[in-house]
Structure formats: C-alpha cells, structure tokens
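anyone seen this seq b4? input:
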Amino acid sequence: MIIISHRGNLSGPDPKNENKPKQIRKALGQGYHVEVDVWKLRRGWFLGHDKPQFRISKRFLQNPRLWCHAKNLAALGDMIKERRIHCFWHEKDSHTLTSKNIVWTYPGKKTCRNSILVSKGGGKAQGCMKGVCTDFPIRYRKNQ
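predicted toks r here
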C-alpha cells in the first residue's frame, strides 16, 4: 500500500506549510510519497494550490516519489513530455489516469486494484487498491 502525503501534510491539513519545498522534503524524508500542486509560468516552475507560490526547479519534480498534480495547462504539457516526472491533471473527475497509468480516484468513488484513493480522513485504507493520498499519512501508516 502506497501512502501519499497530500501536499506534504503529515498530521492533517496545514495550509501554512502545504506545498512548501521544505515540507515536501520532510514528508519524503519520513518515507512517504508526496502529491504536489505544480504550476508552469514563463518565469519557471512553482508549487502552490490556488496560485504559484514556491519556486522550484524542474529537477525537483523528477523525484520518483512525487505525484505532480498539474494546476495549469503549461505545467501538464511540459511534465507529460518528461518520463522522469510522474504527473496527472484532474479537477472533480471521478477518475483520472496518471502518466504512469495509475488511476487517481476522487474521494468516495469506487476503486480498482490500480487506484490511488484521495481520502479526506485518516482511517484505515479499505478495499482493493494500490494506495491512498491523505492529509494524515502518519495515522494511515499506524493503522496498516
């Protein structure tokens, strides 16, 4: 079971630290995969949920444990060309396919063996799936 930290969160939503490179590195350092929100502008690459906030390098995105959620079309267009960047685009779709052919599943929707379920809670992962993306990865790890 892959446990993915949503935006680098470890013990619940943390809007002040979400998507900050330091927080992402902290979650990676604890052994989690991390979902990050990625923007591409003329002046470079950025992380941030509602807007580009934290400048990063393209190389930063090549970490094999990052799941890069494209937040604008320029980010998706550039990341999808890079085999070393695992990326996807979704808004409120029930399911979407990542660049590594994994099914990214919206909260509360049905999963399959190749699904990552985006979970709002921090309980025990249920059903037959590949993993979970959560704001509570520490709690999930304890419950596995």
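The mean pLDDT is 93. The helical segments are 21-29, 73-79, 137-143. kinda curious what u guys think
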